[in-house]
Amino acid sequence: MTAAQDSPLSIQDSWAELYTDTARGVHRRILLELARGDERIYCVDSDTGGFEDDFAAELPGQYVNVGIAEANLLGMSAGLAAAGLIPFAHTMSTFATTRALEQLKLDVAGNNLPVRVVATHGGLSAGHYGPSHHAVQDLAILRTLPHLTVLVPADAGETALAVRAAAHHPGPVYIRLGRNATPQIHHEPYDFRIGTSVQLADGDDLTVVATGPLPVHFAGGAREVLAERGIAARVVNMHTIKPLDRAALLRAAAETAGIVTVEDHLDAGGLGGAVSEVVSAEHPCRVRRVAIADRYLDTVGDERELLADAGVTVDRIVTEALTLLDPARTDHPNPRRR
């Protein structure tokens, strides 16, 4: 089943109506719709809230709540998958990738079982809870696990497409969502394909590659600022972290002066590292990273405040882009075309 076959036309809500909800709210609605048509789809919950009011009420035979026990969540989901079912396991990203890492590594990924881990509160979207709920190491961990597909939708509409694409994708899938409502990136439905990034804007001076809702939004903002300086930035939404869209990265390396990566993750091991691995091996180019520096974020605040404190901002993307184009003259209106 392809994304095109299971596409936006079958979503009960209109595209615009999806954006009245958060990405995790959209996921709940799409999951229930999918489960109505396929009794193999199970919702495995860990007291995340919301599923008991809709999914459990309508399909109690396809709902299991293990409580706040993330290791049990993934171990049980692996068992359900081994029995021929399609479990969607729900928790927060930091708990899925640290507290239950052993089960994710051995039970799910190691056995190549079709468990769909839907992890909310990715990045710093749970910043109001403090550092115990920050998920800024998760992508680095996930990239090392065998067989695992890793999706990071950029907005609510893309979340609906990603969940549908993941439902019958072979092997385990991890979907990383935020907590809060975020800006709309995609203004119309499209043919979502796992492993194929989306070019949001064309440009031949440099390429900005971003993953996650606010990083992609910031990348678009930086493109507008750079355009005022006469610099054309290509913007790519890298919604799949594994497998990475190598073809898009190699085109960017060949056709533009270099790549700026943007993410709500630590600098080590995330999108920037993945992109650098690809281009350094196959088409070397300059790469500048906009990410969270190697530090412990021990402050409490909302997502945008913490990202700003960590240096993930539109201004930082612009600075890194100008540095990439000409380290010696970042004040030039278009350094590449002097």
Q: What can you see in these coordinates?
A:
By secondary structure, this protein is α/β, with parallel strands linked by helices. The protein has 2 domains: 8-176, Thiamin diphosphate (ThDP)-binding fold, Pyr/PP domains (Rossmann fold); 198-328, Rossmann fold. Helices cover 38% and strands 18% of the residues. It is built from 13 helices and 12 strands. The protein has helices at 15-18, 23-37, 55-58, 70-82, 93-99, 101-109, 138-142, 156-167, 213-228, 246-255, 271-282, 303-310, 314-325, and strands spanning 41-45, 63-65, 86-92, 116-120, 149-151, 173-176, 198-201, 206-210, 233-237, 240-242, 258-266, 286-292. The strands form 2 sheets. Strands 2-1-3-4-6-5-10 form a 7-stranded mixed beta sheet, with helices on both faces. Strands 7-9-8-11-12 form a 5-stranded mixed beta sheet, with helices on both faces. Strand 1 (41-45), helix 3 and strand 2 form a beta-alpha-beta unit. Helix 2 (23-37) packs parallel to helix 8 and helix 4 runs parallel beside helix 6. It is globular and about 60 Å long.
Search tags:
38% helix, five-stranded mixed β-sheet, alpha/beta, 338 residues, seven-stranded mixed β-sheet
